Amino acid sequence: MTKLIFVTWNINKLKEAKSLLQDFDIENEKIDLIEIQWDSEEIARYKIQTAFDIIKKPCFIEDTALFFEERKNKLPWPYIKDFATNIWIKELPKLLKHNFNATAQTTIAYHDWKNIHIFIWQKRWKMFTHCGIDKFTRDPIFQPEWLNKTYAELTHKEKNQISHRSKAFKNFENFLKNNE
What we know:
Layout: E1 2-7, H1 11-20, E2 24-29, H2 40-55, E3 59-68, E4 76-77, H3 80-86, E5 101-111, E6 116-127, E7 142-144, H4 156-162, H5 164-178
Parallel strand pairs: 1-2
Antiparallel strand pairs: 3-4, 3-5, 5-6, 6-7
Helix pairs in contact: 4-5
């Protein structure tokens, strides 16, 4: 089984990565990497280069950004971690008045000794008031635009078939398998 190093401080992201990349042995390096103020791809590039410089081994990071259409996709942008830390998830919908559409973007960056590879997937959501059990931070308030359930109301398997994170990890997995 191929070994991968996932640099993350977030235990939920680690659990989800392990469930999505079952053909790989995932080890965790628990490092809370600094998020520079830039766009999502540049943040991911900076984080993976920093992680690689620290552990000196091939590794990957995952970064999720959230874009509110009403805020002209400027807020919370890639700084959702700070929002989730400082504004309880139930309060996020109160930042909006009329347009509750949002886009989540997952960016996975992988450093393979020589190059940085980027995998991005976006998914449109509609934000609702809190509904369902809080399995993964934002799950209780986000509903894929074609479903009548929030992510928190889906089974783990159902969520992993449609989520932005699962699609980004699938692209990453395909890359890894094609480059073994």
